[in-house]
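Look at a sample.

——
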Amino acid sequence: MSLNKYVVGLTGGIASGKTTVANLFAEYGIDLVDADIIAREVVSIGSDGLKAIEQHFGQSLLLTDGSLDRSALRAQVFDNPQQRLWLNNLLHPMIRQKMLDQVQASTSSYVIMVVPLLFENHLDSLVDTTLVVDIAPELQISRTMQRDGVSKQQVEHILASQMTREQRLAKADNIIDNQGEYELLRSQVLRLHQQYLQHAADLETNVND
């Protein structure tokens, strides 16, 4: 890490509770850098990302208000590896740069970078430590069906496109178990928060030496 800032990469499978965990860290005054929010910003109206997509795919991918029709874009790249590669090559560097800019601008002791596909997109190279929010696949399926109103088959399809639970846990430096009570979750976050504060202080000492 070239950034003089201690960065925690927070990830987990769909419906694992990443946002809930991130918000608990935010309660301690820790800045969050959210890849999903940034991914929307780089294709917002007037952005270079949206202009490039319009040039490449045509105006049919825009809604009447000029914003990106996400479902139309998904349909374009879903079964087309070449188009998906083009899109990833366009957006990933933009997202990565914006995330780094936000980390650099952060004023909290350390930063939580929330990235759903942290390992899949090799963004773990940008962080000092990785934190995985873990729940059982059965729970992921039921929570996603309930939250998004989708079928079991659709959720299983999403799970199949992500890293397996075993692969994710094998890569994790820290793990939060989000299958129990909320208070249990809160106590795990507090323990890690204190740990990260210490690591951040150590990093600062080394930088200043």
Notes: The mean pLDDT is 92. The longest strand covers residues 6-12. Strands lie at 6-12, 31-34, 110-114, 129-134, 174-177. DSSP finds nine helices and five strands in the chain.
